[in-house]
Design a protein that fits this description.
The complex is a heterodimer.
Chain A (H helix, E strand, L loop, with lengths): L1 E2 L7 H15 L15 E5 L7 E7 L2 E12 L10 E8 L14 H16 L9 E3 L3 E13 L5 H13 L3 E7 L2 E9 L8 E8 L2 E4 L3 H4 L4 E7 L5 E6 L5 E2 H26 L5
Parallel strand pairs in A: 5-7
Antiparallel strand pairs in A: 2-3, 3-4, 4-7, 6-7, 8-9, 10-11, 10-12, 12-13
Helix pairs in contact in A: 2-3
Chain B lengths: L26 E5 L7 E7 L2 E12 L12 E8 L14 H15 L10 E11 L4 H15 L9 E8 L2 E4 L3 H6 L2 E8 L4 E11 L1 H29 L9
Helix pairs in contact in B: 1-2, 2-4
The chains are: A alpha+beta, B alpha+beta.
Chain lengths: 277, 244
Amino acid sequence: MSTAIQPKKNITARIVQDKIYSLLQQSKRLDGRGLYDMRSITITTNLIEKADGSALVTLGGTKILAGIKTEIGAPYLDRPDEGSFTINAELLPLASISFEPGPPDERGVELARVVDRSIRESKVLDLKKLCLIEGEKAYILFIDIYVLDYDGNYYDPSLIAALAAIATARIPEYKVVDGKIQKTGAYFTPKLQSLPFTVTFGLIKDKLIVDPHLEEESVLDVSIIIGVDEKDNIVSIQKNSPGLIPEHLLTKMIEIAIEKAREIRKIFCEKLNISLD
Amino acid sequence: MKSNEVKLIREDGRRLDGRAFDELRPLKIEVGVLEKCDGSAYVELGKTKVYAAVFGPREVHPKHLALADRAILNCRYHMASFSVDERKPLGMTRREIELSKVIREALESVVFLEEFPRTCIDVYIEVIQADGGTRTAGITAGSLALAEAGIPMIDLVAGVAVGKINGHLVLDISDIEDKYGEADMPVAMAPRLNSIVLLQLNGRLTGEEFKNALELAKKGIMEIYQQQREALRRKYSGISAEEV
């Protein structure tokens, strides 16, 4: 059963909220950012030699590690000519006092499903190219995400990490010989067909902020994640907290999300030296 | 994967089940359908059939989970194994875990939890048949069950899923429209406050389409909201709709 895990606003939280809100009224934030500024992003790829692809992404103080392992398996029955991918996410207990050991709780499940939705709906991977023998053999990508250090907003960097791991993956290549598959000894990198990025918003009273850090996150009235692809399509949305979002604010959020996703995409492409063509 | 290959719109410009783009499926709402709980409701939207029941406010178990300044709202969204085309495995799937969370958060947005410190309120949503829009039907039923249990709320919550099929935005998508359409966007609102309490999107929409989809959802939500109020009035007949 789903039970509220996030600590709720007590008196201390209300004092913190008042402090943060009074700063927001002067268009300032605790860490000196503007209301719609993201924290700085770093991306390190292929740091796990045993993984087929990996990336460590930091967004300010939040640190995410994503890794890929590939297996050969049967395609899904309803998609016999496609390979597949699964995304899993764990909020590791070493990342935060509020994370506990054990199987992923609802927050981990939600994180994985939001990242999955963004990648799937924008068709980042050409799954048909990941099929080896129709109905029999296909590549299955296991993309696992670990939150290593949690300073607020694990959504946006998790998607960046998953994409960076895919974009720089070296997956053992197989070929079909006489109806059987065998390793060629070479490696391939899946081509990215699309580059979606999510932007996390927080609302404190009437003030909208982008990429809330932990202290801001603890006093948000409501939070929502919006994913945008390179053609400025909205590809995923998840309101991920209780609270009311006044309808008129959504249009503004969409505009900001489009702009911020472009910024992240630019950083991503520059750091990884890739382009979508 | 969503694709354009399946024709979801007929030659006469109507949807496969004969509906117009902005038309809800037949909606049936009943309040107080189960005996032993504190509040319950049943919502039928076409072939989508959902029960909701509420227990509480009651004591929290284990006790250390209780909050000193407010009630805890628990929510379980669950589908019967036979409610879908392929039998759903018993137990909670990842999808059900996620939906339980977002439904809880949607309902939490309108309940005056601080009225009942150190207690919990449990909302159980059972989907007995799924044909698209189950989470939003669950929220519609859940908020009525809360109302019947006498839990104070700032507003009822009503929800509906809008989608995009063969390039057109449509209200209240069915399972087949979800499966073969281009986008599925469940929306729930507190209509009186003109505020969103649940919003998710699976699929691709342009900014302009998103705006129109939201308008379409709002239209459906207002119709559902009206019927929610009427269902409550039927249950407590003699009280006029304005007072509900």
